Amino acid sequence: MAMVEPPLPTAPAPVQAAASAAVTPARAILLMVGSVVFFALMDALVKDLGTRFPTMQVMFFRSLFAFVPIVFLILHGGSLKVLRMNSLTGHLLRSLVGVAAMFCFFHAYSRMPLAEVVAISFAAPVFVVALSVPLLGEKVGPRRWAAVLVGFVGVMTMLQPDAGLLRSIALVPLIGTLFFALAMIVLRKLGRTETSASVAFSFTLSCTVVSGLALPFVWVTPDLLDLAALVAVGLLGGIGQILMTSAFKHGDVAVVAPFEYTAMIWATGLGFVFWGEIPGLNIWIGVAIVMASGLFILFREANLRLPRGLARRLQVKR
Fold first, then answer.
1. 259: which DSSP letter?
2. CB neighbours of 212 closer than 8 A, spacing ≥ 6?
3. Which of 40, 46, 56, 283 is the most buried (most CB within 10 A)?
4. Quick check: 295 and 126 in contact, CB under 8 A?
5. Is residue 258 part of a domain?
6. Considering the chain, what is the average pLDDT of its residues?
């Protein structure tokens, strides 16, 4: 497995080694759960703001103010070397598919129940395995192909395809999940030469620039309360990203990654409390199938010692 540089500036080697040894699996899991909570709160704010502001405007504040915690940690580390980019083409491609994924998810939040969007996003590992064959030339055995097929059955159970499926808003988060999977595939390659700090920085910068270019055409002036909520979206997203990176840095992927699925709990709770949303039976059945498929893929790849964890350590969830 190729080694990845630390995701954020770290202490000198002896201190770092001691600190890493002190981090237990339980603490890594708590970091992951904390990350999921921050992202869930961000998603709820995005859902609320999306009813009053254009998606591109919400994305601009999400990316702009995510710089605050990210830059603070980079400067606190005392070195800008972690931002060096060795593959500009890779960073650009990752940023483009990442921006597309974020747009799809943010657009869907305000138009669908929160838990349903989150449930559909769980299909990302299934798409990653399916796409890794044509895009990476990876060999996938019959067990993982079976898991992929099972995962797609789960997706179809959630979507309930019928004659009106092509006009359904549910296709938007599904397309977003496809873009997210493409981003993870690109990160597979970037993980060999790039630091996760440089990937996070380039993605956040690209999203700020792209959404900023759209602002003159879509701007809606917020009041003070909405402005505070827009700023909070960026801060929550930035902190969630840092917590997730730290969780994967200090914990084994097979231990930490399954706790991403706790997002369904928070999304369901927030959706019910604030919007009275209750996911239908098809969503619960479908998400259970997709989760089982994703967990099988995760543990199968851990047993095969595939470098899938590199992508997870560098990913920007939303």
1. G
2. 60, 64
3. 46
4. no
5. yes
6. 84
Extract the tokens encoding 233: 């979206």
Q: For residue 315, which of 208, 183, 222, 224 has the smallest C-alpha distance? A: 183
- Residue numbers of the domain that contains 76: 26-314
In a domain, 5, yes or no: no
Place 50 in a pLDDT band, splitting at 50, 70 and 90: very high
The per-residue pLDDT for 166 is 60
Which residue in this structure is represented by tokens 């929160």? 114
User: Does residue 15 lie within any of the structural domains?
Assistant: no
Say which residues have a Cβ less than 8 Å from residue 28's Cβ, sequence separation at least 6. Answer: 246, 247, 248, 250, 251, 252, 255, 256
Q: Which stretch of DSSP H or E encloses residue 189?
A: helix 171-190
Q: Give the three-state DSSP class for 52.
A: coil
Tokens of 71: 């830059």
Q: At residue 235, what is the residue type?
A: L
Please tell me the distance from the alpha carbon of residue 63 to that of residue 56, in angstroms, as a whole number.
11
Report the domain count for the chain. 1
User: Residue 246 in contact with residue 16, Cβ under 8 Å?
Assistant: no
Token pair in block for residue 242:
């840092």
130 belongs to a structural domain = yes
Which is it for the CA torsion 251, 255, 257, 260, positive or negative?
negative
Residue 197: per-residue pLDDT:
78
- In this structure, the number of other CB atoms found within 10 A of the CB of residue 32 comes to 24
- One-letter amino acid for residue 81 of the chain: K
